[in-house]
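Q: I'm writing a short explainer about Type IV toxin-antitoxin system AbiEi family antitoxin domain-containing protein for a general audience and would like to include a description of its predicted shape. Could you first generate the structure from this sequence?
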Amino acid sequence: MSIAESISNRIKRMRKGRPFVRNVFERTGSRTAVNKALSRMVLSGSLERVARGVYMRPMRSRYTGKMIRANPISVLEAVARARGETIQIHGAEALRRLGLSVQMQVLPTFYTSGRTREIKIGNAVVRLRHASRRRLQQAGTKIGMALTALFYLGENGVTEQIAIKIANSLDHEEFNKLMTCKMPKWMRSALANCNWNARE
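A: Of course. Here's the predicted structure. Afterward I'll give you a sentence or two in plain language.
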């Protein structure tokens, strides 16, 4: 079986609309051969290149019949898995999701354990900004979202009301996990004052 056939067969078993990186085929053949096989599939329409080194099987909406664009977060997660990086929601976006802000990011930004850079996904650009390990704790969870929102606001921006609202976004177990995270004293103090009686 040729390299192109081997790659094609593997891709046919992949879920449509789910991004993957070119590196998953690094043991299939040389980089040149893999690139050539992927390029041919893109030209034939059986594969879509959604970002540099990132591809997915095209997927149509069953309601409109139009092609569905790659989800930027799914693309970032695929890149992160391949590079062994941790990706965390940005503090500004965390505040919006928590109902503490209505501002949308002009340039979608995420924190990463990797280097700061920009990734072009289709016609959109997403920025990855290097952050400390403390900001990346519990990445991808409600706990991580609460934590990154608190870090983003800073000591002077976290009022008692804001701390209570952030705490209220978590259940008992999630709140307890949040309190086990590494954080500055001011943050721990603000959260410790959110006793359950005040939250109800």
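A: For your explainer, you could say: The longest helix spans residues 31-44.
Q: Perfect, that's easy to follow.
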